[in-house]
Amino acid sequence: MTTPRTVSSAASPRGRLGHQAGTPTGARLKVLLVEDDDADTFLVRELLAEAAAPVELTVATSVREARERVAGVDCVLLDLGLPDAQGLDALRQVLGFVNRPAVCVLTGHHDEHLGIAAVAEGAQDYLVKGQVDGVLLARALRYAVERKRADENAGRLREVELRQAESARLERGLLPQPLMDTDDVRVTSFYRPGRRRGLIGGDFFDVVQVAPDRVHFMIGDVCGHGVDEAALGVELRVAWRALVLAGVPDDAVLPAVEQVLMSERRQPEIFATVATVRLDLTAHRATVRLAGHPPPLLLADGKVGPIPAPSGRLLGIVPKPAPPYELELGAGDWSLLMYTDGLIEGRTGDCDDRLEVDGLNRLVRDGAAKMDLTSLPAWLVERAEAANGGPLADDVAILLLTQDGAR
User: Fold this and answer.
1) Which residues of 194-217 are buried (b: 16+ CB within 10 A; e: fewer)?
2) One domain for residues 182 and 217
């Protein structure tokens, strides 16, 4: 809690301060004095002038007039006894239409309790009339401005901390630990928010094993960015996991997930893309379903290429779903790369061309020949960012499924 200034202004400021009175430094403050008493207005002007304070003073005689003149000021110096508002009501009205400026209130000698209450209501400081000289007045105004800025910075920092905490909670929902215990397939996952902004977007993935020889994989993307899209992505992922664990027939899973999307989305134009893979370990077969999502890439026999599965519809759009695609994998070494479109939408070099699936295919072929595949997802993102000339604009999620035939 601040305390009132205690130096009396009854004596002449010039006689007491001269021109060595600690003139404040820095940019000139723009101050709006809201005061209807001409004598008090004159005194404030004289105090600031005698202290050579770098203050540009504008005067309003009522709250209504202050509303019209507040634009561009750094601080409002507010008397609590005005023709159209009295006491804390005057402060509340002013706080209702000021945003950036600090507010410092003026009280009478017998109304000091109002100054304390004003600070509790949101003012940055208070001054008691007759108990302040020019230097202290100028200093109080500048301190009020700096305190307002500090409060705003603290508020922004707190907001960032809350968003980070919220993002962390959503991330746990979007990017769960794989629910599998087989050693026959190794899963490497990767996630990076768009522009590394630290905010979760709408990308999500999941891995669920439902039998010793059968594992389901899913990756998806809700259009848009932000908390709402992330929350919707969590709902879709959880719905998919619940449906798969409940043994719902594969052809019915994505239509059910789409029902969740359409009932939970906040706007009718929100859609999602999804790619799923059901892996039958004993039969060495993968069943791929795409709902408007980029096709996974298959790495096998020294070759890399997109799986030619039909693209299907976007979830949330009317057309019928595409049929599943059966892929024979064989008992040897192979890998499947599932990814969201943020990885392939970055630009390539100096031209406006996008990386697209063909460009990613070339990157995967290059990377697979020179490194352990567990390092491939992070390497792909680094190369895509290098070609883009900076961080990718969209979120990126990657699932890499690998079978070592020798094992």
Assistant:
1) beeeebbbbbbbbbbbeeeeebbb
2) yes
- Residue 347 has what DSSP assignment? B
Contacts of 155-161 with C-beta under 8 Å, sequence gap 24+, read none
- The pair of three-digit structure tokens given for residue 300, joined into one six-digit string: 């096998």
Cα 337 from chain centre? 29
Dump pLDDT digits (tens) for 314-341.
999 876 778 999 999 999 999 999 999 9
Do residues 107 and 198 both lie within one domain? no
> Could you tell me the CATH number of the domain that includes residue 84?
3.40.50.2300
Six token digits for residue 394? 């969209």
Q: Cα separations (Å) of 402 from 186, 238, 267, 275?
A: 5, 24, 38, 17
CATH of the domain at 345: 3.60.40.10
Full 3-state SS string of 235-256: HHHHHHHHHHHCCCCHHHHHHH
Query: For 102-123, how does the pLDDT look when each residue is reduced to its tens digit (9 = 90+)?
Result: 999 998 877 788 889 999 999 9
Measured between alpha carbons, how far is residue 385 from residues 105, 251, 347, 399 in Å?
A: 53, 37, 9, 18
**For tokens 């000139």, what's the residue?**
28
Residue-number span of the structural domain to which 340 is assigned = 175-403
**Residue showing tokens 């105004």:** 141
Structure tokens at 15: 């006689």
Q: Do 280 and 373 belong to one domain?
A: yes
Q: What is the pTM for the complete model shown?
A: 0.62
In a domain, 5, yes or no: no
The CA distance from 392 to 66, in Å, is: 47
Nearest residue to 315 via CA among 214, 398, 232: 232
320 and 208 within one domain: yes
Q: Are residues 131 and 209 in the same domain?
A: no
Domain count, the chain: 2
- Paired strand residues for 398: 190, 339
Residue 106 identity: L
223 with 357, same domain?
Answer: yes
- H-helix or E-strand containing 188? strand 186-192
Q: Classify burial at 342, counting beta carbons within 10 Å of its beta carbon; exposed 0-12, middle 13-18, buried 19 or more.
A: buried
